[in-house]
Amino acid sequence: MEKTVISLGGSIFGESLDSYLKSITSVLKKYENYAIVVGGGPIARERINFLRQLGASEYHLDKMGIQATRLNALTVSLALGNSMAIPTNIDDAIDLLNSYGKVVMGGTEPGHTTDAVSLLLAEAWGASRVLNITNVDSLYDRDPNLKGAKKIERISYPDLMDLLTREERKAGSNFPMDILSINIAMRSGIDIMILSYKDERNVKNALEGKKFSGTIVSKA
Ligand code: UTP
Fold it and tell me: Which atom of ligand 1 is nearest to the CA of 39?
C-alpha cells in the first residue's frame, strides 16, 4: 500500500469497541506501510472538561489529553496484534516505521491535536496522504445537523480555510480538521481524505487508493 498516515478519531472509543474498532483493526491488519495517530475521544474530553471547571491550566489539560490519546493508541496497537512501543515523538515514530513498516501513536506536545501530529508525521515520513477516519462521512458546507447541509466531495486548502474561519463554524462545532493541520498539509501538498469508520468497505477502498465516499482536501 502507498505510504499512508491515518488520523483515527478518538470518537471510535465512544462506540461499542466490538463494532467499529474491531472492524477497522481487522481491515488494517492486512496492510503494511501505515502509521496511525489515535485521538483522545470521550476519555480526554470528559476529563478535560471536568478539570477545566476546577481551574487546571490549558497546558496541563493538554498533557492530560495526550495521556488519553496514548492509552487509546496502545489499545489500537494491541488490537492490531502489534507489540511495539507507542512512540511519544515524531522522530521515534519514524524509527519504528523504518524498522517495522507500521506504527501506532497518540499525541506528542501540548498546543495541538492528533490531526496536526498526523500531518507532521506525514511530512517527516514523506507520505503524500493522510486519511482522517472519523465519525462523520464527509465534510459538509455547514454544520451537518443544520437543514440543507451539503456534502463536499473535493475542496482546496484555501477554500477549506475560508469555510473553517467563517463565523458560524467557530464555537464548538465538530469540524473534522483544524487550521494548523490544514496549514501543514498545504505547505507540503499532502492530500487529506475525510471518511467515516462506520463503512468498512469504504475504508478499504480509500486505503487502496480506489474511489471512496468522503471528502478530498488537496491543492486544487
Ligand atoms: P485529540 O487530537 O483527540 O483532540 O486530542 P480533538 O481534536 O479534540 O479530538 P478528535 O480528533 O475529535 O478525537 C485530545 C486532546 O489532547 C491534547 C489536546 O488537549 C486535545 O484536545 N493533545 C493531543 C495535545 O495537547 N497534543 C497532541 O499532540 C495531541
Answer: 3
Q: Is the pLDDT of residue 170 over 90?
A: no
pLDDT at 173 over 80: no
Q: Write out the CATH class of domain 4-218.
A: alpha beta
Q: What is the pTM of this model?
A: 0.95
Mean local confidence (pLDDT), 106-132: 97
In short, whether 87's Cβ falls inside 6 Å of ligand 1 is: no
How many Cα atoms within 13 Å fall on the side-chain side of residue 72?
28
- 3-state secondary structure (DSSP) of residue 154: strand
- The residue ranges of every structural domain in the chain are 4-218
* 41 close to ligand 1 (CB < 6 Angstrom): yes
Residue 55 C-alpha to ligand 1 middle, in angstroms?
19
Q: Is the CB of 52 under 6 A from ligand 1?
A: no
Which atom of ligand 1 lies at the shortest distance from residue 44's CA?
14
Report whether residue 176 contacts ligand 1, using a CB cutoff of 6 Å. Answer: no
CA 174 to ligand 1: nearest atom: 12
Whether 40 and 114 have beta carbons less than 8 Å apart is answered as yes
Q: What is the pLDDT of residues 71-85, one digit of tens each?
A: 999 999 999 999 889
Atom of ligand 1 at shortest distance to CA of 61? Answer: 19
Give the chain's mean pLDDT: 93
CA dihedral 75, 81, 85, 91 (to 10 degrees): -100
Taking the alpha carbons of 132, 133, 134, 140 in that order, is the dihedral positive or negative?
positive
Listed residue (102, 99, 108, 97) closest to 82, CA to CA:
102
